[in-house]
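Reply to dn_fold:

You asked what the input looked like. This is it:
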Amino acid sequence: MLIIGGVIAAVAISLFAYLMFYTAPEQIEERVKVIANTDEGCIVETLDGYAINIGPCDFESEEYIIAPIDQKLKERAAAMNPTS
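and this is what came back:
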């Protein structure tokens, strides 16, 4: 019984560690173009064509700004659309 409990605990801890690594943000500063300023935040387009919500901001549409972008978010978006 102790061995089974240990195996289950090891699998659960490994799965938790993997998920934390996968979902942890990897922020980089990138020059982006503001597409829209909505109630949910600014929607920006990166230079490689990804639309990302960066949160509240005070910029107008068509402005270029430097904003923190989660690199892993772009990687997940590319994985969902392999044709881009």
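The longest helix spans residues 2-23.
Hope that clears it up.
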